[in-house]
Amino acid sequence: MRCSALAEHLAEPMIGSVDQRTRWLLLEDRSAWGSHAVDDLFGVAASAAAKALRLRLLLVRRREGDPADDAVRHAMLVDTVTRETAAWTVGGPAEIDVEEVAHRPVGAFGPPMADGPLFLICTNGKRDACCALRGRALMASMAPDHGARTWECTHLGGHRFAGNLVCLPDGIVYGRVLPADGPRLADTYVAGRLDASLLRGRSAWPPPAQVAERELRLRTGIDGVDAVRAESSEVDGERATVSLATPDGRTHRFALIAERLSPPRATSCRADEVDEPLHWKLAAT
Questions:
Q1: Cβ atoms of 181 and 146 closer than 8 Å
Q2: Which domains does the chain have, with CATH numbers?
Q3: Model pTM greater than 0.85?
Q4: Is the pLDDT of residue 238 over 70?
């Protein structure tokens, strides 16, 4: 059984499964992506440094093609906290300093992108077959209305939740997105709204805050992307407290606990071992 089908069969919750990364760096690359495409291009050290700096490094493309076409590539930087974006051209990854990208003002890298939101879909099949099978079908469904805004990308994490759809500049991540869902979710995001039903999380926030946000939206019906603000998120071992603010001036506080999901399962089609994924849930009151 494919890992995505297994996760669905076990009703594994998706919310809170997004790694906290406040900035995203997207580098255009048309080569055939391997199972560790970012490491192959940037190097293991740069990839590890980016993770420590909460910078998501991804390769993106419109289509696979001749790597010789990448003599000049687009690089795009997105800050999911300030919602700033910038684009510039580079000759390759050697021209990109990961630490500089993580810390310098976004505007220092290039002009702001004026084309509206960006949508990313993981199609990195060499990393996990589910991303190719489900991701490419999702890409095709986005082409008629959102093709100019949508990019294939390398591994996002959570391939068992394929198809994965990222909405930038906010870093909203949806999972188990069917081809019929993609255009609808994109339209919703362009309109400044968020659909909590397929939400995996918001990359600018830690996992407990992602879980609390979905719960608050389901309770209140609030759907504006920026209508919920994180005031605090504190983690102490397997317990967390989160405070979220809403436009009515109220502060909503949540207590959460971490648990390991059972039974153990393969979290990737390529996994040699089984795991019990960590999940944050609301504490009983």
A1: no
A2: 1-204 (3.40.30.10)
A3: yes
A4: yes
